[in-house]
């Protein structure tokens, strides 16, 4: 319940709307209590005294208050819906914005499907309660209490005895509430898992098909779908057990009231008007109780969904600019110094696990081209990831232009490092927008310049709409090499003083690779460049080559120097040479 109270913060900006809805709700409840009383007066003052004008006046009053109520309820419904939509809008915005700020380490663990289900179904569940369920509950409570008070004043004995089954009804409700809560918790969690299965399946559908695993995937989905079906059926069973019983106890209130009321009227202890009014009032007791079952459902869904939403919002942003804003990164020239850097991934245990990087000391001058070589898993990508603070060093310091990267304004720092990552991701947008992603204001000439350097311009020109051609999600419609070249153009266009190419030409044929390298020679001029590559052809022109093994630098020097040394580099060279000769 505490989480629900936290969510009331989203109601605050809607205070006026909430007050309007609440005020109109009070008015509606008052009218609901007034109407049966007018009916009573029609019987007792109009019919009993055969006074036609009183009957007319009271009937007109009845009609009048119903018109007022209808108008009120219309405005109330609109305000209530607006509150709900405003809440869901603000909550979704906060969640999305927070997702933008969360660090890489969060996404290393998070499941996309779970996040999607929180962003959609869970937020919707919260909205249903805040924007609808809570207010209906309040309306029910007001009507229930108001009705009992009015009836009590009109004829307390009949009221008291008619209500004798209410404790039983409340007991059923209490039991239902206790059991349905955990069921809703399970359902929300299962929906998250179901979405995860769906999302992973769709993202990996090519692998599924390539390995002919459709049947197994169907089975996996079926299992999760069945679990969800069963939990929903258990919940439905709880409803099926509780709701008719509640209806029965509610019906008994009505029956008792008719029976006792008739006796009291016959004995002259109750007027016929009061009896007629009671028939109306009694629904003011029965409907809130009957509706309470559904409202409990809405509330329990929200109670279970809200922590799932807040858990994301509460996840700490581990990597951010220093408090009070960081150093200006605009003047970064590109001198990079690793000082005894060690690194563990956040989910590793620093006391037991071996570091992914250890004792890295390296000075890279502005404009130097450094190639990083090493066996797979030796820590090359991790080394590069520290530059842009995708992760922070665990020990030592990483300086750019004599300033610790942790002291820079984070966005500024990242804008100064152009990265072509190992796995290319392109957005479902035009090729132009994809290239200009990091520099949205770039001119067409600049975009074309970057595309030429990345050896993709000529290809784009052959596409049906040139730079306006839309490419699908993940860049489907382009080959792996073409995608890499678009990503390369995207990094080049940012005009960064530091360029990082993580296997950026791995998917490109040797001829194109060599053409890209020719063009890159000019692009790299004056920029500090880190090239991670397996092919020796890609690192030939590097000023310095660093060889990593198990997270440590084991060799460094020029191509010539390393070739003369016995070690990983020469072995690799000989292997690739032999392979080329075969
Ligand atoms: N998010 C992570 N959490 C924990 N360990 C990780 C994570 N990402 C990578 N690792 C581990 O860190 C080590 C270094 O990985 P890294 O990606 O830096 O290697 P690499 O040299 O770039 O490899 P490759 O050439 O295959 O891309 C590997 O052993 C890998 O298993």
Mean pLDDT: 88
- Largest beta-sheet details: 6 strands, mixed
Number of domains: 2
Low-confidence stretches: none
Looking at the structure, what is the overall shape?
Answer: elongated
Bound molecules: adenosine-5'-triphosphate
Number of helices: 20
* Helix-strand category: alpha/beta
Number of strands: 10
CATH topology of the largest domain: ABC transporter transmembrane region fold
Helix content: 55-70%
State the distance separating the first and last CA atoms. Answer: 71 Å
Neighbour order of strands in the largest sheet = 6-7-8-3-9-10
What would CATH call the homologous superfamily of the largest domain? ABC transporter type 1, transmembrane domain
CATH C-level class of the largest domain is Mainly Alpha
The CATH architecture of the largest domain: Up-down Bundle
Q: What is the H-and-E element order?
A: HHHHHHHHHHEEEHEEHEHHHHEHEHEEHH
InterPro entries: AAA+_ATPase, ABC1_TM_dom, ABC1_TM_sf, ABC_transporter-like_ATP-bd, ABC_transporter-like_CS, P-loop_NTPase, Type_1_exporter
Domain ABC transporter: 336-575
Subcellular location: Cell membrane
Membrane topology: Multi-pass membrane protein
């Amino acid at each position: 319940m505490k989480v629900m109270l936290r969510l009331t913060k989203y109601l605050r900006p809607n205070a006026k709307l909430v007050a309007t809805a609440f005020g109109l709700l009070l008015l509606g409840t008052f009218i609901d209590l007034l109407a049966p009383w007018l009916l009573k007066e029609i019987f007792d003052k109009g019919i009993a005294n055969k006074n036609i004008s009183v009957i007319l006046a009271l009937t007109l009053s009845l009609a009048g208050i119903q018109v007022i109520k209808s108008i009120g309820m219309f405005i109330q419904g609109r305000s209530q819906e607006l509150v709900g939509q405003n809440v869901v809008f603000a909550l979704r915005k906060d969640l999305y914005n927070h997702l933008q700020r969360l660090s890489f380490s969060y996404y290393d663990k998070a499941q996309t499907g779970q996040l999607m289900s929180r962003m959609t179904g869970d937020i919707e569940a919260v909205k249903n309660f805040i924007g609808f369920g809570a207010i209906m509950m309040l309306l029910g409570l007001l009507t229930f209490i108001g009705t009992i008070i009015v009836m009590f004043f009109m004829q307390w004995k009949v009221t008291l005895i008619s209500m004798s089954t209410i404790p039983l009804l409340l007991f059923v409700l209490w039991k239902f509430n206790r059991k349905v809560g955990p069921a809703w918790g399970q359902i929300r969690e299962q929906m998250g898992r179901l979405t995860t299965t769906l999302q992973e399946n769709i993202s990996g559908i090519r692998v599924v098909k390539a390995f002919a695993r459709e049947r197994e995937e169907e089975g996996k989905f079926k299992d999760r779908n069945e679990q969800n079906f069963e939990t929903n059926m258990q919940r439905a069973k709880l409803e099926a057990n509780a709701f008719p019983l509640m209806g029965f106890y509610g019906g008994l209130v009505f029956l008792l009231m008719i029976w006792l009321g008739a006796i009291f009227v016959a004995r002259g202890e109750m007027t016929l008007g009061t009896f007629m009014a009671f028939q109306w009032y009694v629904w003011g007791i029965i409907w809130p109780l009957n509706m309470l079952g559904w409202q409990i459902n809405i509330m329990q869904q929200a109670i279970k969904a809200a922590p799932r939403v807040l858990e994301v919002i509460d996840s700490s942003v581990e990597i951010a600019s220093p408090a009070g804003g960081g150093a200006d990164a605009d003047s970064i020239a590109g001198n990079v110094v690793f000082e005894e850097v060690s690194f563990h991934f956040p989910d590793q245990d620093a006391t037991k696990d071996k570091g992914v990087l250890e004792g890295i000391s390296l000075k890279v001058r502005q404009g130097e081209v450094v190639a990083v070589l090493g066996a797979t898993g030796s820590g090359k990508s991790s080394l590069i990831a520290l530059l842009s603070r995708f992760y922070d060093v665990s020990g030592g310091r990483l300086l750019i232009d004599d300033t610790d990267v942790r002291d820079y304004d984070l966005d500024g720092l990242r804008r100064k490092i152009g990265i072509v990552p190992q796995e290319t991701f392109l957005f479902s947008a035009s090729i132009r927008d994809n290239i200009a992603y990091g520099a949205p204001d770039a001119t067409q000439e600049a975009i074309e310049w970057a595309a030429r350097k990345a050896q993709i311009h000529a290809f784009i020109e052959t596409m049906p709409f040139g730079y306006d051609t839309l490419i699908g999600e993940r860049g489907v419609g382009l080959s792996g090499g073409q995608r890499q070249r678009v990503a390369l153009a995207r990094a080049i266009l940012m005009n960064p003083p530091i360029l990082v190419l993580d296997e950026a030409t791995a998917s490109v044929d040797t001829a194109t690779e060599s053409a890209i390298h020719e063009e890159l020679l000019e692009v790299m001029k004056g920029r500090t460049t880190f090239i991670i590559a397996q092919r020796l052809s890609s690192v030939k022109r590097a000023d310095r080559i660093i060889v990593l093994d198990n997270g440590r630098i084991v060799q460094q020097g020029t191509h010539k120097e390393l070739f003369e040394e016995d070690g990983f580099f020469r072995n690799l060279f000989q292997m690739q040479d032999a392979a080329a000769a075969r």
